[in-house]
Amino acid sequence: DLFAAVEPILPSLQEDNIVVWVLGSGPYPPGVVALQELLDAASEELEPEDVWQPEDMNDTCLYIFTSGTTGLPKAACVSHLKSIMCLSFYDLVGASSRDVVYLALPLYHMAGSLLGIVGCIGIGEQGWGPHGELSNISGGMTLPPTPLPQSRLSTGATCVLKEKFSASQFWDDCRAEGVTVFQYIGELCRYLVNQPQRPGEREHGLRLAVGSGLRPDVWRSFLKRFGAIRIVETYGMTEGNVTLFNYTA
To answer: Boundaries of each AMP-dependent synthetase/ligase domain copy (predicted)?
Structure first.
Protein backbone atom coordinates (compact mmCIF):
# COMPACT_ATOMS: atom_id res chain seq x y z
CA ASP A 1 0.00 0.00 0.00
CA LEU A 2 2.91 2.35 0.66
CA PHE A 3 4.79 1.70 -2.58
CA ALA A 4 3.07 4.64 -4.29
CA ALA A 5 4.79 6.97 -1.81
CA VAL A 6 8.21 5.52 -2.67
CA GLU A 7 7.83 5.18 -6.43
CA PRO A 8 8.55 8.87 -7.31
CA ILE A 9 11.97 8.69 -5.61
CA LEU A 10 12.76 5.16 -6.80
CA PRO A 11 15.42 6.26 -9.35
CA SER A 12 17.38 8.20 -6.72
CA LEU A 13 17.17 5.27 -4.30
CA GLN A 14 18.52 2.92 -6.94
CA GLU A 15 21.37 5.34 -7.69
CA ASP A 16 22.35 5.02 -4.04
CA ASN A 17 22.21 1.20 -4.34
CA ILE A 18 19.16 1.01 -2.07
CA VAL A 19 17.05 -2.06 -2.77
CA VAL A 20 13.28 -1.69 -2.35
CA TRP A 21 11.37 -4.75 -1.15
CA VAL A 22 7.59 -4.83 -1.50
CA LEU A 23 5.16 -7.35 -0.04
CA GLY A 24 2.52 -7.64 -2.72
CA SER A 25 1.70 -9.25 -6.04
CA GLY A 26 2.83 -6.37 -8.26
CA PRO A 27 3.69 -5.80 -11.02
CA TYR A 28 6.52 -3.50 -9.96
CA PRO A 29 9.20 -1.58 -11.88
CA PRO A 30 12.54 -3.26 -12.65
CA GLY A 31 14.84 -3.47 -9.67
CA VAL A 32 12.04 -3.72 -7.11
CA VAL A 33 12.00 -7.04 -5.26
CA ALA A 34 8.51 -8.55 -5.00
CA LEU A 35 8.78 -10.41 -1.72
CA GLN A 36 5.51 -12.30 -2.17
CA GLU A 37 6.82 -13.97 -5.32
CA LEU A 38 9.90 -15.16 -3.42
CA LEU A 39 7.75 -16.48 -0.59
CA ASP A 40 5.50 -18.36 -3.01
CA ALA A 41 8.51 -19.94 -4.70
CA ALA A 42 10.29 -20.86 -1.47
CA SER A 43 10.50 -24.49 -0.40
CA GLU A 44 8.58 -25.56 2.69
CA GLU A 45 11.50 -27.73 3.79
CA LEU A 46 13.76 -26.37 6.51
CA GLU A 47 17.17 -25.13 5.47
CA PRO A 48 20.20 -26.85 7.05
CA GLU A 49 20.89 -25.68 10.58
CA ASP A 50 24.18 -24.03 9.63
CA VAL A 51 22.23 -21.67 7.33
CA TRP A 52 19.83 -20.21 9.89
CA GLN A 53 21.65 -20.68 13.19
CA PRO A 54 23.44 -17.44 14.18
CA GLU A 55 27.16 -17.61 14.87
CA ASP A 56 26.78 -15.01 17.61
CA MET A 57 23.58 -14.28 19.54
CA ASN A 58 24.51 -10.59 19.50
CA ASP A 59 24.38 -10.54 15.70
CA THR A 60 21.49 -8.62 14.13
CA CYS A 61 18.31 -10.66 13.86
CA LEU A 62 16.08 -7.97 12.37
CA TYR A 63 15.64 -4.24 11.90
CA ILE A 64 12.70 -2.39 13.41
CA PHE A 65 12.06 1.20 12.42
CA THR A 66 11.47 3.53 15.34
CA SER A 67 8.68 6.10 15.34
CA GLY A 68 11.13 8.98 15.06
CA THR A 69 10.36 10.74 18.34
CA THR A 70 13.89 12.19 18.43
CA GLY A 71 14.26 12.76 14.70
CA LEU A 72 13.51 10.93 11.49
CA PRO A 73 12.56 7.23 11.76
CA LYS A 74 15.63 5.03 11.82
CA ALA A 75 16.29 1.32 11.69
CA ALA A 76 17.13 -0.07 15.13
CA CYS A 77 19.19 -3.27 15.18
CA VAL A 78 17.57 -6.03 17.22
CA SER A 79 19.86 -8.92 18.09
CA HIS A 80 18.98 -12.61 18.24
CA LEU A 81 19.51 -12.45 22.00
CA LYS A 82 17.08 -9.58 22.46
CA SER A 83 14.48 -11.34 20.32
CA ILE A 84 14.75 -14.48 22.45
CA MET A 85 14.58 -12.47 25.67
CA CYS A 86 11.17 -11.19 24.55
CA LEU A 87 9.86 -14.73 25.07
CA SER A 88 9.78 -13.98 28.80
CA PHE A 89 7.84 -10.70 28.59
CA TYR A 90 4.40 -12.01 29.55
CA ASP A 91 5.86 -14.38 32.11
CA LEU A 92 7.42 -11.38 33.86
CA VAL A 93 4.04 -9.71 34.27
CA GLY A 94 2.26 -12.81 35.58
CA ALA A 95 0.48 -14.18 32.50
CA SER A 96 -0.04 -17.90 32.00
CA SER A 97 -1.03 -20.30 29.23
CA ARG A 98 -4.63 -20.07 30.42
CA ASP A 99 -4.78 -16.39 29.51
CA VAL A 100 -6.21 -14.90 26.32
CA VAL A 101 -4.17 -11.90 25.19
CA TYR A 102 -5.76 -9.05 23.21
CA LEU A 103 -3.31 -7.42 20.80
CA ALA A 104 -4.21 -4.49 18.55
CA LEU A 105 -0.75 -2.94 18.22
CA PRO A 106 1.02 -2.74 14.82
CA LEU A 107 3.23 -5.75 14.18
CA TYR A 108 5.94 -3.67 12.51
CA HIS A 109 6.86 -2.26 15.93
CA MET A 110 8.61 -4.10 18.72
CA ALA A 111 5.70 -3.84 21.17
CA GLY A 112 3.35 -5.74 18.89
CA SER A 113 5.71 -8.17 17.20
CA LEU A 114 8.35 -9.15 19.75
CA LEU A 115 6.70 -8.37 23.08
CA GLY A 116 3.22 -9.26 21.85
CA ILE A 117 3.52 -12.22 19.47
CA VAL A 118 6.86 -13.63 20.65
CA GLY A 119 5.85 -12.97 24.25
CA CYS A 120 2.69 -15.05 23.79
CA ILE A 121 4.71 -17.92 22.34
CA GLY A 122 6.99 -17.87 25.37
CA ILE A 123 4.30 -17.97 28.05
CA GLY A 124 4.65 -20.91 30.41
CA GLU A 125 1.90 -22.96 32.00
CA GLN A 126 2.24 -20.86 35.14
CA GLY A 127 3.16 -17.18 35.30
CA TRP A 128 5.97 -15.59 37.28
CA GLY A 129 4.83 -12.88 39.65
CA PRO A 130 6.55 -9.52 40.07
CA HIS A 131 8.77 -10.69 42.94
CA GLY A 132 9.84 -14.06 41.57
CA GLU A 133 6.88 -15.95 42.99
CA LEU A 134 5.15 -18.58 40.91
CA SER A 135 1.52 -17.61 40.38
CA ASN A 136 -1.31 -20.03 39.77
CA ILE A 137 -3.49 -17.61 37.84
CA SER A 138 -6.72 -19.57 37.66
CA GLY A 139 -6.69 -20.64 41.29
CA GLY A 140 -5.65 -17.28 42.70
CA MET A 141 -2.78 -18.95 44.56
CA THR A 142 0.70 -17.51 44.95
CA LEU A 143 3.64 -19.64 46.03
CA PRO A 144 6.64 -18.27 47.96
CA PRO A 145 9.45 -16.57 46.03
CA THR A 146 11.32 -19.08 43.91
CA PRO A 147 14.50 -18.61 41.84
CA LEU A 148 13.83 -18.49 38.13
CA PRO A 149 14.45 -21.91 36.59
CA GLN A 150 17.25 -22.60 34.17
CA SER A 151 14.76 -24.00 31.70
CA ARG A 152 11.04 -24.70 31.57
CA LEU A 153 8.35 -25.66 29.14
CA SER A 154 6.80 -22.84 27.11
CA THR A 155 3.26 -23.76 26.21
CA GLY A 156 2.18 -20.41 24.77
CA ALA A 157 -1.16 -18.67 25.12
CA THR A 158 -4.06 -17.66 22.90
CA CYS A 159 -3.56 -14.30 21.18
CA VAL A 160 -6.51 -12.36 19.79
CA LEU A 161 -5.18 -10.20 16.94
CA LYS A 162 -7.25 -7.13 16.14
CA GLU A 163 -6.42 -5.58 12.77
CA LYS A 164 -7.20 -2.07 14.02
CA PHE A 165 -7.96 -0.92 17.54
CA SER A 166 -11.55 0.16 18.11
CA ALA A 167 -12.45 1.77 21.43
CA SER A 168 -16.17 1.25 20.76
CA GLN A 169 -15.71 -2.47 20.07
CA PHE A 170 -13.07 -3.24 22.70
CA TRP A 171 -15.22 -4.49 25.57
CA ASP A 172 -17.51 -6.43 23.23
CA ASP A 173 -14.39 -8.10 21.80
CA CYS A 174 -13.16 -8.91 25.30
CA ARG A 175 -16.43 -10.58 26.24
CA ALA A 176 -16.77 -12.44 22.94
CA GLU A 177 -13.21 -13.81 22.97
CA GLY A 178 -12.81 -14.34 26.72
CA VAL A 179 -9.92 -11.87 26.91
CA THR A 180 -8.01 -11.77 30.19
CA VAL A 181 -4.87 -9.77 29.25
CA PHE A 182 -4.62 -6.54 27.25
CA GLN A 183 -1.39 -5.06 25.86
CA TYR A 184 -1.65 -1.31 25.43
CA ILE A 185 0.14 1.86 24.64
CA GLY A 186 -1.04 4.73 26.81
CA GLU A 187 -3.27 6.33 24.21
CA LEU A 188 -5.40 3.20 23.85
CA CYS A 189 -6.44 3.43 27.49
CA ARG A 190 -7.22 7.12 27.04
CA TYR A 191 -9.43 6.28 24.06
CA LEU A 192 -11.35 3.81 26.23
CA VAL A 193 -11.77 6.28 29.08
CA ASN A 194 -13.03 8.95 26.65
CA GLN A 195 -15.74 6.68 25.25
CA PRO A 196 -19.35 7.41 26.31
CA GLN A 197 -20.33 5.27 29.27
CA ARG A 198 -22.23 2.11 28.40
CA PRO A 199 -24.05 -0.48 30.51
CA GLY A 200 -22.00 -3.52 31.47
CA GLU A 201 -18.56 -1.91 31.19
CA ARG A 202 -17.41 -3.89 34.22
CA GLU A 203 -18.84 -7.16 32.93
CA HIS A 204 -15.66 -8.62 31.49
CA GLY A 205 -12.88 -11.05 32.36
CA LEU A 206 -9.97 -8.67 31.84
CA ARG A 207 -7.62 -9.02 34.80
CA LEU A 208 -4.30 -7.63 33.53
CA ALA A 209 -3.25 -4.70 31.33
CA VAL A 210 0.41 -4.27 30.44
CA GLY A 211 2.11 -1.68 28.29
CA SER A 212 3.80 1.70 28.16
CA GLY A 213 2.95 5.38 28.26
CA LEU A 214 -0.08 5.37 30.58
CA ARG A 215 -0.56 8.79 32.18
CA PRO A 216 -1.37 8.83 35.92
CA ASP A 217 -4.74 10.55 35.43
CA VAL A 218 -5.80 8.06 32.75
CA TRP A 219 -4.53 5.20 34.94
CA ARG A 220 -6.79 6.29 37.82
CA SER A 221 -9.80 6.91 35.57
CA PHE A 222 -9.34 3.54 33.84
CA LEU A 223 -9.40 1.59 37.11
CA LYS A 224 -12.24 3.60 38.61
CA ARG A 225 -14.43 3.06 35.57
CA PHE A 226 -13.61 -0.47 34.43
CA GLY A 227 -12.85 -2.27 37.68
CA ALA A 228 -10.00 -3.94 39.53
CA ILE A 229 -7.67 -4.61 36.61
CA ARG A 230 -4.01 -5.05 37.47
CA ILE A 231 -1.85 -2.66 35.47
CA VAL A 232 1.86 -3.25 34.87
CA GLU A 233 3.49 -0.22 33.27
CA THR A 234 6.78 -0.81 31.48
CA TYR A 235 9.40 1.43 29.94
CA GLY A 236 11.92 0.51 27.28
CA MET A 237 13.13 1.46 23.82
CA THR A 238 13.53 -0.64 20.71
CA GLU A 239 17.19 0.31 20.46
CA GLY A 240 17.79 0.29 24.23
CA ASN A 241 19.21 -2.44 26.44
CA VAL A 242 17.30 -1.77 29.69
CA THR A 243 13.60 -2.25 30.43
CA LEU A 244 11.79 -1.10 33.58
CA PHE A 245 8.67 -2.74 35.06
CA ASN A 246 6.41 -0.92 37.52
CA TYR A 247 4.84 -3.59 39.74
CA THR A 248 3.78 -1.20 42.52
CA ALA A 249 0.18 -0.54 41.53
So the answer is: 47-124, 153-243
Mean pLDDT of the chain: 83
| Domains of the chain by residue range | 3-78, 87-246
What does the pLDDT read at residue 104?
95
CA angle, 248 as apex, 247 and 249 as ends, to 5°? 100
Among 192, 2, 227, 198, residue whose Cα is nearest residue 104:
192
**Contact of 193 with 221, CB cutoff 8 Å:** yes
Query: In this structure, are strands 208-212 and 230-235 parallel, antiparallel, or unpaired?
Result: parallel
Note the pTM of the prediction, 2 decimals. 0.75
Q: Which of 216, 214, 218, 210 is nearest to 245 (CA)?
A: 210
Question: C-alpha 156: how far from its chain's center?
Answer: 14
In CATH, 87-246 is 3.40.50.1820 = no
Asked if residue 110 has pLDDT above 60, the reply is yes
Rg (CA), the chain: 21
